[in-house]
Amino acid sequence: MSLTETTYWVVGASFALYVLIAIRSRAGSTQEFYVAGKGIHPVANGMATAADWMSAASFISMAGLIGLSYNGYGGSVFLMGWTGGYVILAMLIAPYLRKYGKFTVPEFIGDRYYSDAARVVAVICLIICSVTYVIGQMKGIGVAFSRFLETDYETGLFSGMLIVFFYAVLGGMKGITYTQIAQFCVLIFAYTVPAIFISLQLTGQPIPQLGLGSTLADGTYLLEKLDRTLLDLGFQEYTTSVRGSTLNMAAFTASLMIGTAGLPHVIIRFFTVPTVQAARTSAGWALVFIAILYTTAPAVAAMARLNIIQTLEPQPGQHLAIEERPAWFKNWERTGLLGIEDKNEDGLIQYSADTETNELVTLDNDILVLANPEIANLPNWVIALVAAGGLAAALSTAAGLLLAISSSISHDLLKRTLMPHISERQELFASRLAMAAAVLGAGYLGLNPPGFAAGTVALAFGLAAASLFPALLLGIFSTRVTREGAILGMLSGIGVTLAYVFQHKGIMFIPGTSFLGELPPNWFLGIEPNAFGVVGAIVNFGVTLGVTRLTPAPPDSVQQLVEEIRVPASL
Amino acid sequence: MMDFSSMHAHGATCMVEADQKAVRQIYWRENRRWMLTLGSIWFAVSLGCGVLWVEPLNQIQLGGFKLGFWFAQQGAIYTFIALIFVYARVMARLEARLGLGEQEG
Fold this sequence. Notes:
The complex is a heterodimer of chains A (571) and B (105).
Chain A: H1 3-24, H2 30-35, H3 42-53, H4 56-69, H5 76-100, H6 105-112, H7 116-148, H8 153-203, H9 208-211, H10 222-232, H11 246-262, H12 264-267, H13 276-312, H14 327-334, E1 338-339, E2 362-363, H15 367-370, H16 372-375, H17 380-418, H18 424-447, H19 456-477, H20 483-505, H21 533-550, H22 556-566
Antiparallel strand pairs in A: 1-2
Helix pairs in contact in A: 1-8, 1-17, 3-8, 3-13, 4-13, 4-17, 5-11, 5-13, 5-22, 6-7, 7-8, 7-17, 7-18, 7-19, 7-20, 8-13, 8-17, 8-18, 10-13, 11-19, 17-18, 19-20, 19-21, 20-21
Chain B: H1 4-52, H2 54-58, E1 61-62, E2 65-66, H3 67-98
Antiparallel strand pairs in B: 1-2
Helix pairs in contact in B: 1-3
């Protein structure tokens, strides 16, 4: 069977599984549609959260971001930032919101800050964060299809939309939860199998996490060898090259951490477990499942980078002839992820940090994960599995985001603000309608990606960190914070962050409209735009607390609500 | 005639309420203490060992890893997992001790 045929079979089988689950888990009530009936086991919810959380970016791009763009150590911001947030979630957010026990994040903000205006502002912040995020997933679906199944981008996108439409509209959170569990199994298997093989080949150690610290066949440590090789090629040392400055790395890590704890599609996953204690352990399980991928990724990054360099230059000074390049190399050249240009016309490929003489002119981040199985000579079914895994990662995150968007529209805007008298059946119908509209809207944005589609995932975290996280945290830990404080805080946090990003990357990311330029010398304290969420959050905290001092305390009922959510037992 | 029994019941409720308030205060104080302790460890292994103190730690070798690099790409994540499970455990115990646990429903 050819590779494309195998891939069709494997991807087709995984899709059939998702449809089967969807048919078996239709939602019969709003409680099932929004929070899966609050009956999900904490370990199962941990798995679903892991799939919800790990997007196409984590699966396809992260190892490459670490290994190539951020040159090793600099990429640690993603590893620590995207996992450390779970500690904040487990200790500061999830148990209390689970105790509160309703359906959405804006609903909590609206009730805690006793105001429809606060609810609506929270809905707006939620939609800005989630839409920025979902565009990346829709693109991921289209790209994965076109690379592996050789369909065009549109066909791929429509197939993905159809499948999400099916299980998200029918089953809501219930359908999404069970498909996410299946998707987690597919994606984690697809990620770890090639990693184990590449680790075995390079170091003889089957566990990639240990292989990263092991010795190569020639007795030198893998990381030491990589450091030396990169220095010889004119790059910085792999294990010590800092991204920007220490302050920038700290700000980037902190933004991703608090963004994680403020992203609504992650928070609502903890509304689906039966108890407060289950919300805490469930966050732990989620991180266990996430860590399987997140501790493997740095090993894949270092090993695949070394592998590629050694393919191009087996011994120092001995370069690979263009004529003799392996089949996988030619395959990925066709997709545009790899590109060579024989600048000195010697028929050999010279890879170096110097852009003048470097002949590996295109080396896309995604190549480290996507080409890994072929570089390691693994059988076709493993390569097909990577395709199914990438799609599982993109679909599961897209579905979670779409649920967060649609429930905030049907529940917070419609039921809680505009039409409070509709019946439950009508609301369930409205929630299905909102979900259908969200899928179509996301599909439209996937087909016509706005100029800012690239690199938006990290931005979504900055926005969540600057807007929703402080409102949630203060809402739980202070009985005194007022609605005026929270509303102005959210608006100024998201405003400052958007303004900073726009002034460096263009208004709505339109090239040429950035009035301060994208270059590091223009950055505030050397902090890059993607890392600015933490500054936005500080502004939000400051404004909220300042305004609170000037406004009258919240009513007693609100102070009682806060007391109530702090303890697991009901009063 | 005064309804003595209902007055008595009212007094008892007041006392229970006062007790409950004290119990909740103890609970919240303990909770904050754990959050602070575990939160400091959280900060120390990630932003501390992984970013701020990475250079001195890199002078120490752990197998094939420089120690600071290992914290940033492996160690911090393992510690995070441990922190969450420790927190869940101590809170469950605290709630059982103070009678604030929830009934599985």
